[in-house]
């Protein structure tokens, strides 16, 4: 400008300086956004569209979990467990079904507070809510609509229904219908059982939670990893749960369970220094009973790779196959060879037999469990007992062989896995036009009797493991 017309250049610089002084002193409240924010949105949109053109491959399989947690702060144990599976390599969506009508403003406020809580807990997750007439309708809507493009859930995680045998707000039919809907949409299903339970709403101090959210520094430019460190190298501590001072024993147990599974539990930092190593020590027992694509093996292997489960040994139980003519039984050797091809290191492999009939005592225990739901009536009015579907004689006759195998499985679980840190058991499939209560009783066989934390899992028959290059 000085070469073209030096007087105009001096006048322009003077005007710029005057405008700067006015803006500096008046300090107008204006937020026009940043170019970086616009670039982040554009890059995310372009990447999501480009991902649609990428062909799926088994080696690129990632667990993309939809966990039916409700508000994540109410069931932190369930959310923490889901996060320990996917960590930084998968996607996690916390689904919340609102049975009562909420205003859009209230839902936005809840979403904002939820994201602040997730960030303070170092959980990389999305939050999605839906309003429906019942839990089942809302869960089905989340299964169909959550995610975008190829960033959609391929695994559904639910908490075990501890109150299935009593009248509750959710019937067994609703619970089982969510499972069948997930399988119909080609989603794998995982059900997490914990004898302590998950719901800590009675113990949670919501007022303190909101206060902690408001005073927490929110910096969208830095992301938090699971060791307690941010991308800029600053070490942070994972915030504890905001609970009330006086708690009932069962609430204390649920809070302790959630704290035990929190992200970064294996390494505790104070003032930037590692001060503790709180890994879960023990064994993870994997009962791989049916071929579901390999998810029953992949999930426990992923758990042992990260805290707090990376201090556990991996023990595999498989069915003892019948040897062919002229061959000796070598199920354990074959399984070890297969695991080596998958590059999964198991500390022990054990073959079990489910064809052996269960004891009379175990059969009697199961009959006592379902006795109050038994009905031999064909009348539709006798279809329910205390709000739950009854078990008819033809249900038991049709599924007699499978039920006896599951009773035998309970005996083996009691014998081998009653003291493990985590059991991962292949979950049976629900049968259409059969009693949902009988299916819940079958699941009860795998967790009853003071069993440890148990993950019931069934893949969608999509291969997630391969040993081919």
Mean pLDDT equals 84
Q: Low-confidence parts, pLDDT < 50 over ≥5 residues?
A: 217-236, 271-275
Order of helices and strands: HHEHEHEHEHEHHEEEHEHEHEEEEHHEHE
Report Rg. 27 Å
Provide the helix percentage: 25-40%
Commentary on this structure:
The chain is of the alpha/beta class and 469 residues long. It has helices at residues 6-26, 35-51, 76-86, 104-120, 135-145, 172-184, 206-215, 249-260, 295-303, 331-341, 360-370, 393-398, 400-416, 436-445, and strands at residues 64-68, 91-98, 126-131, 155-159, 188-193, 268-270, 273-276, 282-288, 312-319, 348-352, 374-375, 384-385, 388-389, 391-392, 422-426, 454-458. The strands form 4 sheets. Strands 3-2-1-4-5-16-15-8-9-10 form a 10-stranded mixed β-sheet, sandwiched between helices. A two-stranded antiparallel sheet has the order 6-7. The longest helix has 21 residues, at 6-26. It is elongated and about 105 Å long. Residues 217-236 and 271-275 have low confidence and may be disordered.
């Amino acid at each position: 400008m000085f070469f073209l017309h030096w007087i105009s250049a001096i006048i322009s610089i003077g005007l710029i300086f005057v405008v700067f002084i006015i803006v500096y002193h008046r300090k107008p409240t204006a937020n026009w956004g940043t170019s970086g924010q616009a670039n982040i949105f554009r890059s995310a949109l372009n990447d999501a569209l480009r991902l649609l053109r990428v062909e799926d491959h088994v080696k690129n399989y990632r667990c993309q979990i939809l966990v039916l947690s409700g508000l994540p702060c109410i069931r932190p144990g369930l959310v923490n467990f889901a996060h320990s599976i996917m960590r930084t390599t998968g996607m996690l969506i916390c689904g919340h079904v609102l049975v009562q009508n909420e205003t859009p403003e209230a839902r936005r406020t809840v979403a904002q507070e939820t994201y602040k809580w997730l960030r303070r807990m170092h959980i990389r997750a999305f939050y999605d809510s839906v309003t429906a007439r019942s839990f089942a309708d809302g869960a089905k809507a989340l299964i169909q609509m959550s995610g975008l493009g190829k960033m959609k859930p391929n695994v559904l995680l639910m908490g075990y229904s501890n109150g299935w045998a009593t009248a509750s707000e959710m019937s067994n039919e609703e619970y089982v219908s969510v499972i069948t809907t997930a399988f119909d949409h080609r989603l794998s299903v995982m059900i997490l059982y914990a004898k302590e339970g998950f719901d800590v709403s009675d113990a949670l101090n919501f007022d303190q939670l909101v206060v902690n959210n408001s005073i927490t520094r929110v910096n969208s430019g830095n992301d938090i990893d699971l060791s307690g460190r941010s991308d800029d190298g600053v070490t942070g501590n994972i915030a504890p749960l905001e609970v009330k001072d006086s708690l009932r024993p069962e609430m204390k147990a649920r809070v302790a369970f959630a704290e035990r599974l929190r992200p970064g539990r294996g390494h505790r930092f104070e003032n930037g220094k590692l001060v503790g190593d709180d890994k879960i020590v023990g064994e993870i027992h994997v009962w791989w009973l049916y071929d579901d694509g390999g998810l029953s093996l992949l999930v426990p292997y992923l758990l042992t790779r990260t805290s707090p489960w990376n201090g556990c040994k991996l023990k595999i139980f498989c069915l003892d196959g019948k040897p062919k003519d002229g061959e000796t039984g070598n199920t354990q050797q074959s399984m070890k060879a297969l695991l080596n091809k998958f590059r999964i290191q198991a500390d022990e492999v054990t073959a079990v037999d489910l064809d052996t009939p269960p004891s009379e005592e175990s059969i009697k225990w199961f009959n006592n469990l379902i006795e109050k739901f038994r009905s031999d009536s064909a009348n539709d009015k006798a279809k329910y007992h205390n709000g739950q579907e009854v078990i008819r004689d033809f249900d038991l006759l049709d599924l007699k062989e499978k039920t006896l195998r599951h009773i035998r499985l309970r005996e083996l679980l009691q014998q081998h896995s009653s003291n493990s840190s985590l059991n991962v058991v292949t979950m049976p499939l629900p049968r259409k036009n059969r009693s949902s209560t009988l299916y819940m009783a079958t699941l009860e066989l795998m967790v009853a009797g003071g069993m440890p934390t148990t993950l019931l899992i069934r893949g969608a028959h999509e291969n997630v493991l391969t040993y081919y290059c």
